């Protein structure tokens, strides 16, 4: 059934595509590599297209588009539709769209129970395979290049709010749709999705188990012990796309979250007594241990349910611990707690913005905000700049930060000096090192205007107008896909 518009905005706002900070030469090299890969796919596409076809609503402004200079990476200038969109029967709608390699995965719930899932070739629009089930209740789909993952909840109507919810993850082959394996667990367990491995931390026992993502074969298991792990994270790197600040991940709520599998082999765990343990994610071997000095770690983790109490984030070798406090949150590393905000200011969001540096969004009320960069090694504040108020998710590329707040919060794009260079009232995220995508409802109806914003000169260009969006969109550097009511829409970016 169609979601309430405010809920839809909230779900749509939790989107970003992130590759953290790197040097300028590295960015130029990545740009050269990407241009080489993309030339074949983009050859023959018009720079600016008016999208037409049955039910297709992509339009152009009547005013002449500005002539924008060429950039590296190439500037995104338009959208081109891919094939005929798969359509559902009257009264049904697509709920999610995901990208798995060169495939788009569409997901639709069926009233009364069950789901329909379809895989579409992202270059031609041809349907590759289709799955359906009458079993209830399937919450959504997560997708990586190596797996299509369906989440089923078993005791939704139990009425016991605090009771752990039984779940099953079904892992399918992206090429054929064939079910490879499945995993039963509860929503009190912790999961980490690696590009080759799935790790589960069992809440009731503290046991950690790792499985091969393709086959489901158990790779290793580690007992909980006297000081058992309670929180777990992968290690994000410059090579990973990742969003920070959603509070969930794609395996907890695939209806709103995008899957960002880790590529680094380090698994980071925090024990009940505040000890940080780093393991090899493929073998389970302990690489290092360090006792956390976060003063309230043990007390905060004494609760049998860890939801909302504390989180662990790891980026390029630095581990960050966050604890919810009355006025926002407290942030630190295993060896220190950063000086908190002062007076009526409160920390509302943070994102690792360089190796051993973290950027914190600090707000005073609803109208004032500033961005604070902190040296993670010393806790020293390096700079403070004005910011756009809001709370959502953040992504990073080459020193630039993109905030996507969702709802009525809008977006904010910051340059490497922490200055806000662009903002609007939509949601969005990075496409590549040189382009940001934003989607806004300019006309006050259910259509969305797509814009490309350059991270080089911060000039915007209207790409087109999308029809009604009925769930979470997904994108990468070549493709945008959205559930649009009964139709699953796919576009390729033109440059």
From TrEMBL:
SUPFAM superfamilies: Quinoprotein alcohol dehydrogenase-like (SSF50998)
Pfam family, one: PQQ_2
Gene3D superfamilies: YVTN repeat-like/Quinoprotein amine dehydrogenase
Regions that span the bilayer: 40-58
Annotated ranges, domain Pyrrolo-quinoline quinone repeat: 116-291
Keywords: Membrane, Transmembrane, Transmembrane helix
Domain of life: Bacteria
Protein name: PQQ-binding-like beta-propeller repeat protein
Organism: Actinoplanes flavus
């Amino acid at each position: 059934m169609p979601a309430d518009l405010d809920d839809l905005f909230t779900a749509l706002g939790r989107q970003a595509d992130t590759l953290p900070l790197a040097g300028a030469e590295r960015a130029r090299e990545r740009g050269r590599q990407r241009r080489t890969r993309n030339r074949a796919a983009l050859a023959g596409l018009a720079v600016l297209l008016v999208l037409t076809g049955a039910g297709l609503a992509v339009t152009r402004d009547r005013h002449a588009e500005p002539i924008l200079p060429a950039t590296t990476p190439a500037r995104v200038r338009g959208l081109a539709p891919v094939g005929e969109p798969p359509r559902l029967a009257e009264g049904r709608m697509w709920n999610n769209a995901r990208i798995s390699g060169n495939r788009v995965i569409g997901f639709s719930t069926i009233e009364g129970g069950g789901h329909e899932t379809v895989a579409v070739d992202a270059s031609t629009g041809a349907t590759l395979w289709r799955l359906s089930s009458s079993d209830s209740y399937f919450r959504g789909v997560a997708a990586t290049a190596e797996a299509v993952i369906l989440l089923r909840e078993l005791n939704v109507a139990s009425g016991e709010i605090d009771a752990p919810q039984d779940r099953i993850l079904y892992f399918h082959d992206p090429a054929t749709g064939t079910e490879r394996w499945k995993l039963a667990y509860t929503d009190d367990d912790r999961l980490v999705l690696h590009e080759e491995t799935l790790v589960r931390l069992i809440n009731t026992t503290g046991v950690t188990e790792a499985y091969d993502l393709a086959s489901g074969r158990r790779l290793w298991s580690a007992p909980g012990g006297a000081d058992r792990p309670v929180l777990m994270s992968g290690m994000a790197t410059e090579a990973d796309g990742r969003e920070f600040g959603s509070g969930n991940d794609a395996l907890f709520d695939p209806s709103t979250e995008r899957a960002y599998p880790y590529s680094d082999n380090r698994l980071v765990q925090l024990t009940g007594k505040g000890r940080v343990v780093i393991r090899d994610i493929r073998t389970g071997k302990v690489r290092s241990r360090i006792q956390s000095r976060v003063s309230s770690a043990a007390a905060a983790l004494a609760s049998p349910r860890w939801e909302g109490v504390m989180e662990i984030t790891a980026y390029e070798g630095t581990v960050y611990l966050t604890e919810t406090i009355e006025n926002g949150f407290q942030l630190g590393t295993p060896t220190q707690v950063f000086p908190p905000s002062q007076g009526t200011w409160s920390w509302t969001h943070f994102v690792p913005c360089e190796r051993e540096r973290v950027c914190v969004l600090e707000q005073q009320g609803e109208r004032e905000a500033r961005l604070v960069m902190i040296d993670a090694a010393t806790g020293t504040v390096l700079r403070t700049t004005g910011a756009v108020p809001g709370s959502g998710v953040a992504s990073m590329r080459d020193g630039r930060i993109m905030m996507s707040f969702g709802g009525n919060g809008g977006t904010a794009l910051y340059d490497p000096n922490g200055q806000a260079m662009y903002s609007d009232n939509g949601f969005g995220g990075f496409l590549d090192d040189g382009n940001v995508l934003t989607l806004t409802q300019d006309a006050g109806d259910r259509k969305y205007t797509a814009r490309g914003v350059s991270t080089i000169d911060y000039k915007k260009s209207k790409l087109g107008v999308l029809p009604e969006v009925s769930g979470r969109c997904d994108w990468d550097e070549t493709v945008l896909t959205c559930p649009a009511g009964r139709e699953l829409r796919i576009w390729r970016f033109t440059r």
